[in-house]
């Protein structure tokens, strides 16, 4: 995919609505930017009029003439898309780091288990190791390949063993 210049909207290939409009006076655009950058709950032409040092009536007229509300909504939506993409990338990175840390912890624990003298374990230690091992094996076995790949829609009410049996049999429908 070819990257668009920064002054073009990724969806339309046109200049974004929050850019300065043709024939929009620079003072009106500067006031719009002040208004646009306020949180939606605080956007008030009186506040902008004071900051831009213009009459509130002028600010209200500019807001109407230059469609501040719609343009600011477009800006907010674009900002949310960027924030969502950044959050998704952060989650992917976090999951990768957690997978690597988990693998390292398991490798270390496996090496450490090999160094333990079984005769030195108490019955409580043995019981706890069995419990943890069974829990890890069970939770690993009931996760399907599709789930691991992020491709499956998971029905929490469905028996995971039946889902895996269907998957191994190569049938996709829930009726078997």
Short description:
The chain has 176 residues and is mostly helical.
- Rg: 29 Å
**Secondary-structure content class:** mainly alpha
Cα-to-Cα separation, first versus last residue: 41 Å
**Unreliable runs:** 1-5
- Quick one: how many beta strands? 0
Series of secondary-structure elements, N-terminal to C-terminal: HHHHHHH
Q: What coarse outline follows from CA principal-axis ratios?
A: elongated
Give structural notes.
Mean pLDDT is 83; it is low at 1-5. The chain contains seven helices and no strands. The longest helix has 48 residues, at 68-115. By secondary structure, the protein is mainly alpha-helical. Helix 1 packs across helix 2 (45-52), helix 1 packs across helix 4 (68-115) and helix 2 packs across helix 3. It has helices spanning 26-37, 45-52, 56-65, 68-115, 123-141, 145-149, 160-169.
Keywords:
7 helices, mainly alpha, 64% helix, disordered N terminus, elongated, 176 residues
